[in-house]
């Protein structure tokens, strides 16, 4: 993998974000919301509204408005919230931090559970443990977050009273208290990924264990453990990396639901309330941040893939 | 015979696989014995059970395998009583294996050094550092020039021959008593295969290991093995000392196999009218692969394409059979693809006096006149179409002639010696040889004047290959079509071609009359290629 490839990929990320920015700006233009009315209220006089529109540049041609906005974004200025009147950036980035905590924990939990589950099912193919893993995965992939979240709140929090049902405390303030409140959201956010990825690991590993080089490794007298972990798993995990990166996109969507249900002040929740309030600058900024996150994750996955499989020649 | 000299002893061994609705017998009452320092050749066609024999010895059988109470002894060890745990300590240390295709038997994501060293660590209790040093020495021993670098390389970074050397070094690493070679040169080019065979012979001499050499190639076994066992449908029909077996084969099947092996001296093609005007003239045809990327253009960088074939010029007369030989990547198939419009090319192809400079010049007439048959009928026949649909296409496209579409298809099936009832079958209901006959029928249904055969027999067994060649030669006599016959089987092409073109890395080295290809004044590469070819079995004398 060459330096020029990495540069090219980074350029591609910016290109992607450029396209996303046009889409986002375009969509917010179509939304039936008048920023001036939003700020001054329904009862404002026509004169005041016109003056504000003029001041905000809403009468400028669309491309000029886009350039104003995009120029600000490039400099880290996402504009001012129509609802609160505060700059959008700092609030959103702190929300992003909260969401990332949730997402990273969900990903970690997924990897800790899904990979061993997949290995177990593949190694004991056709046996009871394979069937159990397969059955659980089927249930997992067929349950959307709003179902699992509701079940979790009703059963674990309300009925059994094991964990708090909602709320959020930053881990830096109270680690254990924060963790207690994160357990349910993290589990809910990772259920479908666990089901998906464990099935992926299983099928990839089953395929790999039937290849000639695995047979060759066995016939060299290597121990089962070495054949499985050194020869088999490495090759089986390669395609899984791509799947995990794609699942991150799914996770970003799932987190919006999870944050809403568990009242976690993350970027998903900010986005939801911004949409309800027609708070255009916040919507624009939130979507841009999510797109950037997704692009970066996929870029990282590609780098990791190339690092693990030296045959991949990007140029 | 000294009993203690026996390395492998298989007695009355039978093996079957349980399948839905019964069992398939793959090995039946096998008796084999190999002494120290001896090479036993096991020859058989696909499905004869030769690979199952290897799996049985390695005790690496599928879950549905059913064995009888026959025995397999390695020295004093009864392999059939060994647990999987005990076996894993025997594999790689006392009995090891070299596989057919080094491209698939090496793990693509591990360094070559690790794949060699891990055997030494496992069986010789070496540390990583010791095993790595020992591995380097072993790689040097199998003739690799830069063992230190080779240890660090990944499989995709080295050539097929180098990979197979690493596999062989691994098999010999723990000085085993027995090594099973499962078609170790089949996936390699002629010259590379010759080098690997020489290496095998040298190591065999030096170590005195007992070898079971599995192959479908009789000619090859006649030169490498001390004794040969002929396996047909799971039974050993004949076994004997190599020289005797080839001079005086007793069993009918052995005789068929030996007769089916191509003999360069036995010409199968009629002499050609050399005065005729060329049907095809290929003038300076060059094929480049790869394209300049957008970024290259933006940065005004030079772009170096991969050359498929370089300025190839040759003529083909009506009814001529032109053989094209060369190792993989030499540009044989590239040229064929250019001539059928599957590749862009630079240069000029004149067909029947009409210039063809690219795809747009290939009109319906050209496409009717020029047909191609591919190596793998499995890939070139649509699995979802019945034979009738597959064969109706050329009839409908180029349909001149008498009778209905169906009648003409049936008549063509008869010509390729397939029963008319096959017309409603799907390709998967046919054997490999039968499928290739369908592909041949499809090519000939348009009454072509030039048929390009791209390795069409290399996926077939020897006896099937012989009958397909016989069919091709018969069609050649009847239709007078010219053939471009691309192959790596030099013995075969010497039988059927009028002239042979030798290609090397995209260049046409030379074109020579088939009868004169073995002359002393041929180009150096041609001579090297011919020297690497194993002469056919029946000319061998012990």
What do you see in this structure?
- The complex is a heterodimer of chains A (315) and B (542).
- With 315 residues, chain A is an all-alpha fold.
- Chain A folds into 2 domains: 3-74, no CATH class; 88-308, MetI-like fold.
- Helix content of chain A is 77%, strand content 0%.
- Chain A is built from 12 helices and no strands.
- Chain A has helices spanning 3-30, 35-40, 46-56, 62-74, 88-123, 128-142, 145-159, 175-208, 212-219, 224-261, 267-276, 280-308.
- In chain A, 34% of the residues are buried.
- Helices cover 37% and strands 24% of the residues of chain B.
- In chain B, helix 7 packs parallel to helix 8 (190-207) and helix 18 packs parallel to helix 19.
- Chain B has 21 helices and 21 strands.
- The two termini of chain B are 21 Å apart.
- The model of chain B has no long low-confidence stretch (mean pLDDT 89).
- In chain B, the strands form 4 sheets. Chain B has a 6-stranded mixed beta sheet, with helices on both faces. A 6-stranded mixed beta sheet of chain B has the order 17-18-19-14-20-21, sandwiched between helices. In chain B, strands 1, 2, 4, 5 and 6 form a 5-stranded antiparallel beta sheet that branches.
- Chain B is globular and about 75 Å long.
- With 542 residues, chain B is α/β, with parallel strands linked by helices.
Which keywords apply here?
heterodimer, A: 315 residues, mainly alpha, MetI-like fold, 2 domains, 12 helices, 77% helix, B: 542 residues, alpha/beta, six-stranded mixed β-sheet, 24% strand, globular
């Amino acid at each position: 993998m060459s330096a020029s490839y990495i540069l090219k990929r980074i350029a591609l990320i910016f290109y992607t974000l450029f396209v996303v920015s046009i889409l986002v700006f375009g969509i917010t233009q179509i939304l039936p919301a008048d920023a001036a009315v939003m700020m001054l209220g329904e009862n404002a006089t026509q004169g005041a509204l016109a003056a504000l529109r003029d001041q905000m540049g809403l009468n400028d041609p669309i491309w000029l408005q886009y350039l104003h906005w995009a120029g600000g974004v490039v400099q880290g200025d996402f504009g001012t919230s129509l609802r609160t009147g505060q700059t959008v950036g700092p609030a959103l980035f702190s929300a992003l931090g909260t969401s990332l905590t949730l997402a990273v924990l969900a990903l970690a939990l997924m990897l800790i559970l899904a990979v061993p589950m997949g290995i177990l099912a593949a190694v004991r193919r056709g046996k009871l443990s394979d069937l159990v893993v397969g059955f659980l995965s089927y249930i997992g992939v067929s349950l959307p977050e709003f179902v699992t979240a509701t079940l979790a709140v009703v059963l674990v929090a309300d009925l059994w009273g094991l964990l708090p049902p909602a709320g959020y405390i930053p881990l830096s303030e109270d680690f254990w208290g924060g963790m207690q409140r994160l357990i349910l959201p993290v589990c809910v956010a990772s259920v479908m990924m666990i089901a998906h990825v464990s099935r992926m690991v299983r099928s990839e590993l089953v395929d790999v264990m039937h290849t000639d080089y695995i047979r060759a490794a066995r016939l060299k007298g290597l121990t089962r453990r070495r054949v499985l972990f050194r020869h088999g798993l490495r090759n089986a995990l390669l395609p899984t990396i791509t799947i995990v990166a794609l699942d991150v996109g799914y996770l970003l969507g799932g987190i919006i639901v999870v944050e809403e249900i568990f009242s976690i002040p993350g970027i998903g929740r900010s986005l939801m309330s911004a949409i309800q309030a027609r708070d255009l600058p916040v919507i624009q900024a939130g979507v841009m941040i999510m797109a950037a996150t997704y692009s970066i994750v996929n870029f990282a996955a590609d780098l990791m893939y190339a690092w693990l499989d030296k045959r991949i020649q990007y140029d | 015979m000294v009993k203690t000299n026996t390395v492998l002893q298989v007695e009355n061994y039978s093996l079957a696989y349980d399948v839905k609705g019964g069992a398939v017998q793959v090995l039946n009452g096998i008796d084999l014995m190999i002494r120290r320092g001896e090479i036993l050749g096991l020859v058989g066609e696909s499905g004869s059970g030769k690979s199952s024999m290897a799996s049985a010895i390695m005790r690496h059988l599928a879950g549905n395998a059913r064995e009888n109470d026959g025995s397999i002894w390695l020295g004093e060890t009864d392999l059939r009583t060994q647990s999987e745990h005990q076996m894993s300590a025997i594999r790689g240390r006392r009995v090891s294996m070299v596989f057919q295709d080094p491209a698939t038997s090496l793990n693509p994501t591990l360094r070559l050094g690790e794949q060699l060293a891990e055997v030494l660590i496992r069986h010789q209790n070496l540390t990583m550092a010791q095993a790595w040093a020992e591995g380097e020495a072993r790689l040097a021993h199998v003739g690799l020039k830069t063992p230190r670098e080779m240890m660090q390389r990944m499989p995709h970074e080295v050539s097929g021959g180098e990979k197979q050397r690493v596999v062989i070094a691994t098999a010999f690493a723990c000085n085993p008593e027995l090594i099973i070679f499962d078609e170790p040169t089949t996936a390699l080019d002629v010259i590379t295969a010759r080098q690997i065979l020489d290496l095998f012979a040298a190591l065999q001499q030096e170590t005195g290991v007992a070898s079971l050499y599995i192959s479908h190639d009789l000619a090859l076994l006649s030169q490498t093995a001390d004794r040969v066992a002929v396996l047909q449908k799971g039974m050993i029909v004949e076994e004997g000392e190599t020289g005797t077996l080839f001079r005086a084969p007793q069993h009918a099947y052995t005789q068929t196999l030996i007769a089916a092996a191509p003999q360069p001296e036995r010409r199968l093609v009629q002499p050609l009218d050399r005065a005729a005007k060329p049907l095809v003239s290929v003038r300076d045809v060059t094929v480049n692969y790869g394209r300049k990327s957008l970024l290259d253009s933006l940065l005004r960088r030079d772009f170096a394409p991969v050359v498929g074939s370089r300025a190839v010029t040759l003529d083909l007369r009506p009814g001529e059979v032109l053989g094209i030989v060369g190792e993989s990547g030499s540009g044989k198939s590239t040229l064929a693809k250019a001539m059928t419009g599957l590749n862009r090319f630079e240069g000029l192809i004149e067909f029947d006096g009409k210039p063809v400079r690219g795809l747009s010049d290939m009109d319906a007439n050209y496409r009717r006149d020029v047909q191609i048959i591919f190596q793998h009928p499995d890939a070139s026949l649509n699995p979802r179409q019945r034979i009738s649909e597959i064969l109706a296409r050329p009839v409908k496209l180029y349909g001149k002639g008498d009778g209905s579409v169906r009648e003409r298809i049936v008549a063509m099936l008869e010509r390729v010696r397939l029963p008319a009832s096959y017309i409603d079958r799907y390709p998967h209901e046919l054997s490999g040889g039968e499928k290739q006959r369908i592909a041949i029928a499809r090519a000939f249904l348009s009454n072509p004047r030039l048929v390009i055969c791209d390795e069409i027999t290399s996926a077939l067994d020897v006896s099937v290959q012989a009958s397909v060649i016989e069919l091709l030669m018969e069609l050649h006599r009847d239709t007078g079509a010219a053939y471009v016959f691309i192959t790596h089987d030099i013995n075969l092409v010497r039988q059927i071609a009028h002239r042979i073109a030798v290609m090397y890395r995209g260049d046409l080295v030379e074109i020579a009359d088939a009868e004169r290809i073995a002359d002393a004044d041929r180009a150096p590469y041609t001579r090297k290629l011919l020297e690497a070819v194993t002469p056919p079995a029946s000319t061998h004398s012990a």
